[in-house]
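Quick review question:
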């Protein structure tokens, strides 16, 4: 993903899954496309449930990846251009 939307959410009462779902919904309303990739800081990923620790069934097909270049409480969300090439 080269182009995406940077989303900030530091609400301590909202869990990470709901934050990603909220960011994805806003992205869809604003750009008319459904995002399928989201980068977050590694410290934001729960240490359970396998790969990323986030339940994929709740994330509506948004793949979550860790990146140290993303600051905590920020989400870089968008469409993975390479997805169609797989």
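Suggested answer, residue by residue:
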């Amino acid at each position: 993903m080269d182009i995406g939307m940077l989303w900030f959410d530091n609400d301590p009462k909202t869990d990470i899954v709901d934050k990603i779902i909220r960011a994805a919904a806003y992205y869809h309303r604003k750009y008319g496309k459904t995002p399928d990739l989201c980068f977050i800081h590694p410290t934001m990923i729960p240490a359970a449930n396998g790969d990323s620790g986030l339940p994929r069934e709740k994330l509506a097909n948004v793949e979550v990846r860790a990146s140290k270049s993303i600051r905590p409480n920020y989400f870089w969300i968008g469409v993975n251009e390479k997805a169609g090439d797989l």
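Why it works: The longest strand covers residues 74-78. The first helix runs from residue 16 to 31.
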